[in-house]
Every structure is written in structure tokens, then in C-alpha cells.
Design a protein that fits this description.
The structure holds two protein chains of two kinds.
Chain A: H1 2-7, E1 14-17, E2 21-23, E3 26-33, H2 51-73, H3 78-86, H4 89-102, H5 106-122, H6 127-131, H7 133-148, E4 162-166, H8 171-174, E5 182-187, H9 195-203, E6 207-208, H10 214-217, E7 223-227, E8 232-235, H11 239-259, E9 276-281, H12 284-292, E10 298-302, H13 304-308, H14 316-330, E11 334-337, H15 365-370, H16 372-385, E12 391-395, H17 401-420, E13 430-435, H18 438-442, H19 444-448, E14 453-456, H20 458-466, H21 484-499, E15 503-506, H22 514-523, E16 527-530, H23 535-543, H24 547-559, H25 563-570
Parallel strand pairs in A: 3-4, 4-5, 5-6, 9-10, 9-16, 10-11, 11-12, 12-13, 13-14, 14-15, 15-16
Antiparallel strand pairs in A: 1-8, 2-6, 3-7, 7-8
Chain B: E1 2-7, H1 16-28, E2 32-37, E3 40-42, H2 47-52, E4 60-66, H3 70-82
Antiparallel strand pairs in B: 1-4, 2-3, 2-4
The chains are: A alpha/beta, B alpha+beta.
Chain lengths: 573, 87
């Protein structure tokens, strides 16, 4: 089959080779190009003679927005409301008076007027009305975009299945379109652990990222085959190629059907070593899908989604209801990672200061320990949910004993408060940390004495150990978890855990890398946590290996001092 | 000036959809219109003004119109509110 495909690369069809695959699979469909431009607002004082000009600029932006919204309102009634808001006299008066009085341009005046409105709406007791601030923010965006002559929602015209081609996609971008329509992602920037990659894996669709110059190679509406099995993009393929790929796609569907028959069987090696295959999830929906794939529990519950798909910090009750449902669904294990934002994940309702180095900045546990009330709200919600299942708490990005102890102290406070109110929770709730910083690897023996489990986050660990920004294309080749320093760190963490009788899991990309499976099995990893879609393939792998043999391989690998030698021992190049 | 008392009957109060209908209708009227809700005066030509008042179901309101077409306008507005503003 593969050979046939090679012979067919010809004439009009354009082929692009991609080195790294973010999420595997084959997709065939039309290209949808995402056109996104950054806004640039000036806050300078304007000249008196420019006042009229700014007012007419604003009026023109309103007129353009009205035209856009009238077209949208035909399909969705919500845009009727936006239409009225954008024509609103209160808004108009406020913007015009700000242009005149504050002597600022239309963009800056609009922003100020919107900020006032949002303040009013946020003060309303009615929760429904408070949530309308999202609509106000949306019309603000639309007007700003029209003022600057850029497209507002670049996904607006996405109303049929397509392969999304974009420069890059942020979490708020991906929240603004219907993922049911997406057959696959191709982005010009971003690495294999970027947001898009994780999203694609979760959805079980292919993604190719860091594809240089792709936006200049593809026209909207081109037919594309993305072969994320072999790292290829075929633009406007001929009919023969199309039908061959269509067959291959069907073949893959059959393969996954075969693997799904392993669903009820345990992940146990031929010589009897049993490991846990857990799921990384970002929603209740994910848990349900992971159960279908035969998961042994949830190894990583990304609590961020509760904060990110929201208009305010989620309340204790909101969180409790979700955690409770998750706990009831997850069976033997639900490991909830406390809020892990910052870095590349921001919140629409909380202003983060711009940082020079966000990945070395205010993120994850650092935010939680600073915003104690918010953190305690989350901990209390998790504790309450622990009455309904096997819940474990996991702290991200720990670098010091002080942080761990402070987090545990806050947890104790929450427990006491619940005791005082006679609210039940699991008194034996297990507490663990992510091992994802070099500091935590070096202190791992000490941490092992104060926690119940470890989970190695290989994405960040690799990035921090090797000092390689995983989103930077130029150096993405340097980002490699098969680096001996990463492998030896993993071995060190597993040994320290086992010496102290605690379990060690892994929830980074590496845990789902089939090429690394034997090595990790041999190192003694207890739990592999991954996107649910990868579970069947991994189970198949584990069931066809022997622990004894894997141990020998692992030992040999850890002696090696170059990546190439590591590859050689593992039998790939 | 003419005025008339009425009640908001929309189950979720004057939320986005009915507010949008009301603003659309009021904007078409020539008269100056004010809706009095307790102490508050609302301009029904502004959806933001209507929504930020967060008027609940069952609230008593007074609609005031003044201008050449005040009688017709008042009748139109009252009828729309009492018929649930398209809900």
C-alpha cells in the first residue's frame, strides 16, 4: 500500500513533507484558512481637528458591523441581540463623548466605554445578565476589528467539515468554533505539545504543526489529504491518490475496531506485570469516551477547562458538581490536577500581567498559592467530591518543599472547615505532585516522604531540563524526551518513588509514545496516562511484551549517552 | 405626554431576546419614550439600558411617551410588552 502511494506523487498535486506529527490519523477534506491579525490600539491623545474624523471612523465601524451581524442573525438569534447592542444609543453616546472629552481615538474610547458597561453588568444580581458581559466583549471585539480593518471571527464562515489551516490557534480561538466541523488541524507555528496538538489528540483527529510557509501553499477550498501517519500533506490530489487514501482511512478505522476488542482485558505483560493505563481528560465528555476505550481510571483531570470556558472564577458549587460527576464516572481513580494556567493558557476574565518569560513566570501552583481564596475554593470542591469516588489531588509545577507544605497546609484548612460544617469527604484522600521541573527531580527523594504519588509531566520536564521552548520552531528538533538526561531523570524518579513505596505515573506525551513503551515499562512505571484514543494501542503493546525483557532494554538504554544510541537500542532511527 | 402601567410577563424577565425586540420596536418610534421601573428611568431605545436594569418577570412598569405620535407609539409598546415580546 505504502509503495503504491509513493508511485502516485505526480503532476498537479503538491506534496509537503512534515517532520513531526502532533496527532496521528488521516483526514481528507477541503481547506479552511484562518485569517487572524493582531489588534493594535493606540492610547495617544488626538488632535482637536481629528475628533470628527474619529467619530466618523466609529460610525463606519458600526455600519460595517451591522452588515456582518445582519447576515449572521439569519442563522442564529443571538446575533439579533448583538445587532441591537452595536446600534445602541447609550454605547454610541458614551464612545462619542469619550472621543471628545478624553481626546482619544475611536478604539481607545470604545474600550473605555465597554469597560464601563461591563462594570455595570457585572454589578447586576441576576446571574444570567452578568453573563451577558461575554456578549458585550464580543461586540467590542467586532467593532475593534472593523475599526482596524481586520476580520472579527475568522471561524465565522466555518459551517461544513473542513481541515483547518492557521498560523497558530490559541485556546480562546479553539473555543470559538464547532470542533465537530474540524477534520484535522494544520498550523504554521506551534510544537507537538502545543494547545492545538493536545486538543487534536483529545478529539482523535490528525494534527500537523510547525508546517513552515503552509499558509502560502494552500488556497481556501483546496482539497487536502493530510497524512499524519507519514507526515505528509497532499494538496489537490488526483483521483487515484484520493481513492487510495480513502481505502487507507477505512483500513485504519477497522484496525481501531480490532483494538477495541481489548477493552475489557487488563494491561498486563506476558510475564504478569500489570500496569494502569489511564486517561488524560479535559471534560466529562472525555471521561465517557475514555471509558469506551477501556481506561483504568483518570490519571490527569485538567481542571483548567472549568476556569477557561467560563466568564468568572468557577464557584465551589460549580466545581463540586463537575468533580462529583467525574468521580462517579471514573471508577478506581480520578486524579485532579489543581489549576494549571499561565504559560500559554490565560483567562478571559482575569488580567495577567505581560511576562517576558511566561513559562518561567507566574503559573500553576504559583498562582494558586498567591490567590489563596481561589485555591481553597478549588480544594474544598475537590474534597467534597471525594465522598463520591476515588479522588486524588495533584499539585502542578512544584519546585520546593515550601510550596508543597504550603499547599498541604491549605488543604488541611479546607478539611477542618468541612469538618466544622460536618460535610463528608474522603479522610484518606491521596495527595501527589507533578514532577515536571529539574528541581523536583533533584529533591524527589525528599518529596517521596511527604506525598502519596508522583506523576511525571514529561512535556514540561523535557522543556525545562533541556532549556528548549517547545513552541519555538527553530529549536524544536532539540526538544526530545529520548535525551539521556530526561531518561535518567525518569529512572531516578521511579526508583525514588518505589523505594518509598509510592506509585509513579506519567501523564506527558511521552507516556503515549509507542516507541518509548517498552523502556518505560522496563523502568517500572506504574501508571501510563494518555489521551483516551491511545489507550487501545498501548494496551496491545503492553500485552505483547514481557517485563523481564523490557527491564533489560531499559537498563541498556539508560547507559547510553547520546540520543542516537538510545534510538539504536530501542530499534528505531 | 401619555403613559400606561403594565407588567413584564417574560418568564426569565427582560433578558437579551425580549430586550432586543423591545429596543428594535422602540427605535422605530418617533416619540421620546421612558420606562419607569421603581426609581429607575430606562430608555427602551437602548438595549444595554434595558438589560442593565435586569427587570424580572412580574415587575410593574410604567411606559411614558411624548411626541407627535405618542398615542400610537404607547399603544404599540404596551401591546408588545403584554404579548411577551416575541417569546
Amino acid at each position: 500500500m505504502r509503495d503504491c502511494l509513493k508511485g502516485l506523487m505526480e503532476v498537479n498535486m503538491k506534496t509537503i513533507h512534515v517532520e513531526r506529527t502532533a496527532s496521528k490519523g488521516i483526514a481528507i477534506g477541503k481547506a479552511y484558512l484562518v485569517d487572524k491579525t493582531d489588534l493594535n490600539i493606540s492610547y495617544d491623545t488626538i488632535r482637536e481637528q481629528d475628533i470628527t474624523k474619529e467619530i466618523s471612523r466609529f460610525e463606519a465601524a458600526v455600519a460595517n458591523s451591522v452588515r456582518e451581524l445582519e447576515a449572521l442573525a439569519v442563522k442564529d438569534k443571538i446575533f439579533d441581540t448583538h445587532l441591537e447592542m452595536i446600534k445602541d444609543i447609550t454605547l454610541y453616546d458614551s464612545v462619542v463623548s469619550k472621543i471628545k472629552e478624553n481626546r482619544q481615538n475611536a478604539e481607545a474610547s470604545l474600550e473605555a466605554a465597554i469597560a464601563e458597561l461591563i462594570e455595570i453588568f457585572e454589578g447586576i444580581e441576576d446571574e444570567y445578565m452578568r453573563e451577558r458581559t461575554a456578549d458585550i466583549r464580543d461586540i467590542n471585539e467586532r467593532l475593534l476589528c472593523n475599526l482596524q480593518g481586520v476580520k472579527h471571527n475568522p471561524f465565522e464562515n466555518m459551517n461544513e467539515e473542513a481541515i483547518l489551516v492557521a498560523k497558530d490557534l490559541s485556546p480562546s480561538d479553539t473555543a470559538s468554533f464547532n470542533t465537530d466541523y474540524v477534520l484535522g488541524f494544520i498550523t504554521q507555528e506551534g510544537g507537538i505539545t502545543s494547545h492545538v496538538s493536545i486538543l487534536a489528540k483529545g478529539l482523535g483527529i490528525p494534527a500537523l504543526v510547525g508546517v513552515k510557509d503552509i499558509l502560502n501553499q494552500i488556497e481556501p477550498g483546496d482539497t487536502i489529504i493530510m497524512d499524519a501517519e507519514n507526515g505528509k500533506i497532499l494538496i489537490n490530489p488526483d483521483n487515484n491518490t484520493l481513492s487510495l487514501y480513502e481505502k487507507e482511512r477505512i483500513h485504519q478505522l477497522k484496525r481501531s475496531e480490532q483494538l477495541s476488542q481489548l477493552k475489557e482485558l487488563p494491561a498486563i505483560t506476558k510475564d504478569g506485570r500489570k500496569v494502569s493505563l489511564c486517561a488524560n481528560v479535559g471534560s466529562i465528555q472525555d471521561i465517557k469516551k475514555a471509558i469506551e476505550c477501556g481506561m483504568d481510571g483518570v490519571g490527569l483531570f485538567r481542571s483548567e477547562f472549568l476556569y477557561m470556558d467560563n466568564t468568572h472564577f468557577p464557584t465551589e458549587e460549580e466545581q463540586y458538581l463537575v468533580y462529583k460527576e467525574a468521580a462517579q464516572l471514573s471508577g478506581p481513580e480520578l486524579t485532579i490536577r489543581t489549576l494549571d494556567i499561565g504559560g500559554d493558557k490565560a483567562l478571559s476574565y482575569y488580567e495577567f500581567e505581560k511576562e517576558e518569560n511566561p513559562f518561567l513566570g507566574w503559573r500553576a501552583i504559583r498562582i494558586s498559592l498567591d490567590l489563596k481564596d481561589m485555591f481553597k475554593t478549588q480544594l474544598t470542591a475537590i474534597l467534597r467530591a471525594s465522598a463520591y469516588g476515588k479522588v486524588r489531588i495533584m499539585f502542578p509545577m512544584i519546585i520546593s518543599m515550601e510550596e508543597l507544605r504550603m499547599a498541604k497546609e491549605l488543604l488541611e484548612e479546607c478539611k477542618k472547615e468541612l469538618d466544622n460544617k460536618s460535610i463528608s469527604y474522603d479522610k484518606e484522600i491521596k495527595v501527589g505532585i507533578m514532577i515536571e521541573t529539574p528541581a523536583s527531580v533533584l529533591l524527589v527523594e525528599d518529596f517521596a516522604k511527604e506525598v502519596d504519588f508522583f506523576s511525571i509531566g514529561t512535556n514540561d520536564l523535557t522543556q525545562y531540563l533541556l532549556a528548549v521552548d517547545r513552541g519555538n520552531n527553530k529549536i524544536s528538533k532539540l526538544y526530545n524526551s529520548f535525551h539521556p538526561a530526561v531518561l535518567r531523570s525518569i529512572r531516578h524518579v521511579i526508583r525514588a518513588g518505589h523505594k518509598n513505596n509510592i506509585t509513579v505515573g506519567m501523564c506527558g506525551e511521552f507516556a503515549s509514545d509507542i516507541r518509548a513503551a517498552k523502556l518505560l515499562l522496563g523502568l517500572g512505571l506504574d501508571e501510563f496516562s494518555m489521551s483516551y484514543r491511545e489507550i487501545p494501542e498501548m494496551k496491545n503493546m503492553i500485552r505483547n511484551n514481557s517485563y523481564e525483557e523490557a527491564q533489560a532494554v531499559a537498563e541498556k538504554v539508560c547507559e547510553k549517552i547520546t540520543i542516537r544510541e538510545v534510538y539504536e537500542v530501542l530499534g528505531f532511527s | 405626554m401619555v403613559s400606561q402601567k403594565t407588567k413584564v410577563i417574560n418568564p426569565s424577565g427582560m433578558h437579551a431576546r425580549p430586550a432586543s425586540e423591545l429596543a428594535k420596536l422602540a427605535s422605530k418610534c418617533e416619540s421620546d419614550i421612558t420606562i419607569k421601573v421603581g426609581e429607575k428611568n430606562i430608555n427602551p431605545k437602548s438595549i444595554l439600558n434595558i438589560m442593565s436594569a435586569a427587570i424580572r418577570c412580574g415587575t410593574d412598569i410604567v411606559v411614558e411617551c411624548s411626541g407627535e405620535t405618542e398615542k400610537e407609539d404607547l399603544a404599540k409598546i404596551i401591546e408588545a410588552i403584554e404579548s411577551g415580546l416575541g417569546e
